Amino acid sequence: MKSSAKRSTCAKELTDEIAHTPPEYLPMLLRIVRSYRESVTLPRAKESVRRGWKEARGGTTYPVSTLWDGIDPR
Predict the structure, then answer these.
(1) What pTM was estimated for this model as a whole?
(2) How many angstroms separate the CA atoms of 4 and 10, rounded?
(3) CA 51 – CA 47 distance, rounded (Å)
(4) What are the residues whose beta carbons fall under 8 Å from the beta carbon of 21, sequence distance 6 or more?
């Protein structure tokens, strides 16, 4: 299946699910969808570099040796 056909099928299925969702649950569904999109969408490289540079210049950096502190590998 081509990407555009797959997207169209998914969009139709999403639309159908939304149509069957009780109205009082639509705001929460919208929050879930937005949160999901934001979690899987990577920021553009230019913006990521800009933010990293701003953090470095502002002193909001951490030593590499502390990045894994508090994480239990087991």
Answers:
(1) 0.49
(2) 10
(3) 6
(4) 29
d(CA 20, CA 51): 41
pLDDT grade, residue 19 (50/70/90)? very high
Lookup: tokens for 40: 């899987």
> What Å distances lie between residue 69 and 9, 20, 55, 63, CA to CA?
45, 46, 20, 11
In the chain, what are the domain boundaries? 3-60
* Residues 26 and 18: beta-carbon distance below 8 Å: yes
Model confidence at 44: pLDDT above 90: no
- Residue 49 · residue 38 · CB < 8 Å: no
Distance CA 37, CA 62 (A): 28
